[in-house]
Amino acid sequence: MNNKQIRRRNVSAKPISANESPKVSHSNSKRRMSHSNRSCIFSLLFCFCGCILIAFVTGLFMCPFETVMKIEDIVNVQLKNAYAVNSLLSTGKKLHNIFPTPECTVEGKDKLLYAGLADGRVVCIHPSNDGEIGAGKVENITTGVIQGAVNTYDAWGHGRPFGLRLVGETLYVADAIYGLYMVDIKLKKISILVSPDAVVPNINFADDLDITTDGNFIYFSDATKNQLTHYHFEVYSGICSGRIFRYNLISKKLDIVITNLCFANGVQLSNNEHQLVVTETNRNRITWYDIETWKPLHVVNLPFKPNNVRITDRGTYLVAGSGPFLRPMIKSIFFNFPLLRKSISGLLSVHALDTLYQAMYDESHCFLVELNDFGEVVNVMQGTDGKLAYAIASGIELSDGRIALGTWAADHMAIIDR
To answer: What is the helix, strand, coil percentage profile of the chain, to 5?
Structure first.
């Protein structure tokens, strides 16, 4: 082979491509990067799960209560048949002169309307000059502060009346701060009947009351062992600590007659006073108890959180409340995983826990349900937009045929036309 042929072969011989080595290097680099990315993702995932676990365990240790229970005895009542949605609570007027938050109401003689407010006052709303109930001047019956009285929470600074009954010239008040007291509406004089420290455990949330026609006994509810500012701990813990008391006005004897209620709220004696009707807000139910044996006679499950209950002139019962559950999935998780509730309770502030609890319910959807002595539905009135009736707590029939609705969250009382 001559030199010319050698040179030609060298020229024609295919050299190692300059790109081949980089291709191999590129492939290895991609594999290394892919492996590195996966490792990074797994590391981030591990760190995230670790942080969640640490937060979860921290919440368990920081929880303000030790025991949590599964919530499993709430019956899901659908909004159909008797409870089919309607707008019967959507026509009427707002009374903006009664604020803040008039929860409990009672009508007296001469068309005088009494209400307990969030600032602790009990007020009297006079009729207008032409006789319209609730349209006149507002008169203070109490200032909201009872000097020197034992109270459940000093920092609140004033009372919080949740239940009112009127007998002659005397108002009887269930107050979550001061317990049970009566007010001479003429003299505006307050007399403590049952202070929060009258029993052990203390009465931390006096909520509602009723009085026998002979004036000898008062039945009243202590909604929860938790104070007013921490009322929602009852539902986060799942523990039912509500009680019903009987107070003898003659002998001054105080008895506990029912225990373990799930936020004992409204109290109403039956027409013959052989039964006591009690609402349990955290279990969406109302129960008739025999006052001799204190055994439940019948239970009515409701599609909302019941608050107060009042008897009508017809002998039926008006049960007021609001808040169908908004999201079934959240409801299921919240009720069935007590450790999750406990951890959340340890991580969030009291205010945040209250906000979260309220966000689970539709408080603009209000109910006023009429039941007979057997717990059968007579009538259902609803309001769904929250414009007139919002977060209602009580409903009473007025002497002019209209209905006054108290509220635990709005700054007005609603008067419903019929």
So the answer is: 25, 35, 40
